[in-house]
Structure formats: structure tokens, C-alpha cells
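Cont'd.
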Amino acid sequence: NAGVTQTPKFRVLKTGQSMTLLCAQDMNHEYMYWYRQDPGMGLRLIHYSVGEGTTAKGEVPDGYNVSRLKKQNFLLGLESAAPSQTSVYFCASSPRDNQPQHFGDGTRLSIL
Amino acid sequence: AQSVTQLDSHVSVSEGTPVLLRCNYSSSYSPSLFWYVQHPNKGLQLLLKYTSAATLVKGINGFEAEFKKSETSFHLTKPSAHMSDAAEYFCVVTPSSGGYNKLIFGAGTRLAVHP
């Protein structure tokens, strides 16, 4: 039972570099989400998607872009990484509205 | 606006003693509330959820929580702590617009369990 899989698990970037985080779910869920987790702040929603081909901004979208070209995948992009984006990133999915979310194990990203 | 406050950033208990993790919320509407647990280097796992049915909610691993509207609280309890309960716990509330697609997280409570 894979559930929600995030790749990579760890990454170190230099300021200004770009990268893409991949989230894949095998549960046929409609909704997918990207969060960042910082010490003492819980999880904050970056972007989310309510279905294939759709995306929407969350609480902290600046500096990130997303795409949902396939239902099972949700990509998070950093075009020009900044030290403030050092964080742990979590992807989640849910079947539809009014259902709890299933989380991946996270991607630990450090930007020097 | 909805918000959630976890009253303790760290809680330490001895194995076999009761656990109490406190959560207060503010909401303009009847909320849906969750508790999630996060073990080190892992994602969040749903412990239990309240969705306006019974006010006492039972979850996995012996945890339960009671919804008290008059106190705007949703505290998490367990009668007897186990070493494997050491983790971070998040209280979560849904936004006033309804639905679960946007969750509001508390800052978390780190639970330590000592032998």
C-alpha cells in the first residue's frame, strides 16, 4: 500500500537554483495539497488542487508554482530558491470534500 | 475566522500514566475537528475526527477526544501512555467555508514518554 509518495526525501539547493518536488498518490483521490512545516508553526497550505488540470493558491503561495497534469501526480516547483524556503514539505490527498487527508512522509529541503 | 490553539508545546509523562493534550478552537460555525499524530521523519496520520455526531470520539491506539462546545475545546486523552506514543500531535479545524479541503493546524504538541 504505497498511499502518498514524495520524491525526493532530502535535497540541498543553493540560492537561486530551481527544482521540482513530486507527489504521487495511488488512491484515485480527487484533491491534492502541498504544505510546508516550520518549527512552531504547524502546517501551512501552499497550493492545492481539486481535480486534474486545476490548481489554487493556499495560505503561503508566493515563490512556488504547481501543476496537476495527471490525476495521480501533483508537482511543486521552486523557480528561484531562497533560504526562507528551507522547510519540510508535505503532500496530501483526499477523496473529495469532507474527507480526511492522507499525508506523504515529507521532503526535507535546505537552501543555502 | 477560524483558529486553533494548542495550549502546551511540550508534554512529558511517564509510561503507564494518563495523557492530556489540550486544544482550544475558535469558529463562527460548528466546526469539524481532527487530531493528527506525526512520528519522527514521517507524515501525519489521522488519530480521530469529530464531525458533529457523538461528542466523545474514539480514535486509534486508545486515544479519544471530547468536543465541548461551551468551552470551545477538543482535548486529546489516553488513559495509559506507551513509549510508542512519543510523537508530535496536531489539533486541526476546518475553515468556516466548510469542507475539508483547507485545514487549519495548531502549532503542535510534542509528547515525550519516559520509562
